[in-house]
Amino acid sequence: MKIRYNLLKTEKNTQARFGTIQTNHGTYETPMFMPVGTRATVKSLSKEELKDEHAGIILSNTYHLWLRPGPDVIKNCGGLHKFMSWDQPILTDSGGFQVFSLAKNKRKDITEEGVHFKSHIDGQNLFLTPEKSIEIQNKLDSDIAMSFDECPPYPVTYEYMKKSVERTLRWAKRGKKVHNNPNQALFGIVQGGEFTDLREYSCKETVKLDFDGYSIGGTSVGEDKPTMYKMVEDGIRYLPKDKVRYLMGVGDPIDIIEGVIRGVDIFDCVLPTRIARHGQAFTRGGKINLNNAKYKEDLNPIDNSCDCYTCKNYSKAYIRHLITTGETLGGRLLSIHNIRFLIKLTEELREAIKNDNILEYRKEFLTKYEGKQKK
Amino acid sequence: MKIRYNLLKTEKNTQARFGTIQTNHGTYETPMFMPVGTRATVKSLSKEELKDEHAGIILSNTYHLWLRPGPDVIKNCGGLHKFMSWDQPILTDSGGFQVFSLAKNKRKDITEEGVHFKSHIDGQNLFLTPEKSIEIQNKLDSDIAMSFDECPPYPVTYEYMKKSVERTLRWAKRGKKVHNNPNQALFGIVQGGEFTDLREYSCKETVKLDFDGYSIGGTSVGEDKPTMYKMVEDGIRYLPKDKVRYLMGVGDPIDIIEGVIRGVDIFDCVLPTRIARHGQAFTRGGKINLNNAKYKEDLNPIDNSCDCYTCKNYSKAYIRHLITTGETLGGRLLSIHNIRFLIKLTEELREAIKNDNILEYRKEFLTKYEGKQKK
């Protein structure tokens, strides 16, 4: 089996959907937030901690694993699941996002054949193609592989975006052709920037290629929020209802709510673990920074309403001490909390879909979350 | 109650003793290895991980906690146990070891009153005295406080060491006088370097002051192994049998065995967590370095005979990947393994004491451990 998406309910007033994804590593409910394990490890966390947070699928990065330890090492170790000792599903990205940001001379380095770039580790000249990306992902043996797409910067002209969408379609076809892992699903990626007709075109043409799921790409690249939400709407409108929809690289709590309302099923983002390492935590009253001296003797947990390990066991005073002294336990405790915060948010969104009250849920969430943010 | 040591059995052929320490935070068997939590955290580990490794007492550092977050913050947070959410015993060192290494001009900075030095964080001029050390430890509210002693370098002349021993005795008296925490035990420290008669003198005079336990100081300062083991023998010979004996800063597996054979009850050392962060692991066949390319596709655990979380769940190939890519989970997994290795060693030494076969145990351990080391 590759994967199967089961749509169980659409919310009455919006496009929000409750469903399940069946995989070879278990069945999980959507909407879902996927923690990011860039180098086959969700930074500083154990698999038990991820499971305690009710994580479902996790994401890992093809570019990073290609460089170290290399796809053959992982293949020889029995695939990514066995290598990292994780028995739940894994989605791998295509490596595209990383190599596009590493390509120095965009005009020269990005060719029809693929992308030339230098390794961030040793400067070595490397070349990634749609075929190579799929070949690596086949070896990694993730549950879900992503097509290799062009990730244009923002903004670009309509003409550039049109050509880019065409190229992404050609790359999607090339990748699909060489994809050769009967246990691995392959997702297509909808591009088109902020141009409604290009999103429509990209969407319809990608769907014609018949992928196992679809991703909305090209958001969170510098556009404002209304533009981003419109990109999501335009990217989803022509997707089939019986396939899963994945909004890549989005993990801000408000963006997750807005994405779910527009029909997104899965999200991923490094945000919860990255801000954790800098001492920041999500709370129902907005983001807080544990470096702040006002928490020095604060014996309360980060968030009284949170059910995570960190909030059940440690005070803000202690976490602040760990963060300000550079102790890795601090980032670990905040990562646990932040990931749980986003996963709990998706659990509540699922309930709101079942109860047909997601718009009230959004209003209530935003009142608390943005109220504090603006202080 | 402060603490109570119960001697339950002395091994037939050596000075090795099996016993228990009763504390306000539970009763634990000795010989015991104490993991080091310098800044109120055993680097990268959670309390559950420490308990899974069967840790008993942990050690925390007065100097580091004095600077950050400060003893008053910890006092206002309800003491060190509540601050760090640890319900088992804590021993705090005196801060002496750190400030002696920070004192630049030994002749000028080390005075009868105390030690002048500069903070390692911001270069601030600081002054630590026997009274101040005890006052800080009283506020930290650890189960066991250590006397502030002079830690002379190695080697020094007999005359210097004699004067130093006298000073350590005066400092021990001054500390004991101001010690004011009915729930906290206070340990004296035996010094005297490699001079048998000075160890005897230090031992007898320290015991006269009637501490709750005794520590052997001034080892692991550059002397060779035979000298170190003689220091331990000389430091213990005149200690009372009904008080616990603590060999400070010693954590090499062979040194633990030799210390136990000479009558030591507790040990501490940063070694297992420090070498973990550099990719090294203890095994029954000697220390190994996970950075080594030969482990790239090695699906075996670090040590087949080990019962730790790391060995039950992860391969050398995966840990090598984490270590070589700088992922903190790597240091965490190796810390779990290395601490468990030393704790399991003390568990086996306890059994050997009960079975009166500790010399055979040593022989067997060394054959495997040193055999591999010499390869």
Tell me about this structure.
The structure is a homodimer of 375-residue chains. Chain A has 375 residues and is α/β, with parallel strands linked by helices. Chain A has helices at 47-52, 62-67, 71-76, 80-84, 96-102, 106-109, 130-140, 158-178, 196-208, 225-236, 253-261, 271-277, 309-313, 316-324, 328-354, 358-374; strands at 4-10, 17-23, 26-30, 32-35, 58-60, 90-92, 115-118, 125-128, 144-146, 185-190, 213-216, 244-247, 266-269, 280-281, 288-289. The first copy, chain A, has an eight-stranded parallel β-sheet with strand order 4-13-12-11-10-9-6-5. The first copy, chain A, has a three-stranded antiparallel β-sheet with strand order 1-2-3. The first copy, chain A, has a two-stranded antiparallel sheet with strand order 7-8. In chain A, helix 8 links the parallel strand 9 (144-146) and strand 10. The longest helix of chain A has 27 residues, at 328-354. The first copy, chain A, is globular, with a radius of gyration of 20 Å. The model of chain A has no long low-confidence stretch (mean pLDDT 97). The A-B interface holds A 39-41, 43-47, 64, 68-69, 73, 76-78, 82-85, 296-297, 299, 313-315, 317-318, 320-322, 324-325, 327-329, 331-332 and B 39-41, 43-47, 64, 68-69, 73, 76-78, 82-85, 296-297, 299, 313-315, 317-318, 320-322, 324-325, 327-329, 331-332.
